[in-house]
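so my prof wants the structure for this chain in the tokens format not the other one, which i didnt know existed until like an hour ago. anyway here's the sequence
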Amino acid sequence: MVNCKVVEFTRHATRRMAERFIDPEDVLFVVRHGVMIEDHPDDPRGHSCLMLAFVGNRPIHIVVGIAGAPEMCEIITAYEPMLDEWESDFRTRKQR
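here's what i got, hopefully its the right format
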């Protein structure tokens, strides 16, 4: 879990969420209740992580920027992971 008290959405995230029919409340659910499945401290955009939670039966991945002020997160993107790229637990990338 990531310690976010303030959550901001990038324009990219807002656009992608609309295209993918992902509600902002679902993204906030992932921030509050999801698990970090990848940590990217050396991301060129700044420290980020990939989080997963199930909203109902739907798996949702979000990429969260955590390089800003303490307790502030920036939602970079959100998507529903696909089984052709992820194992059935949606936590493990398939080997290519």
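also thought this was worth mentioning. The chain is about 20% helix and 35% strand.
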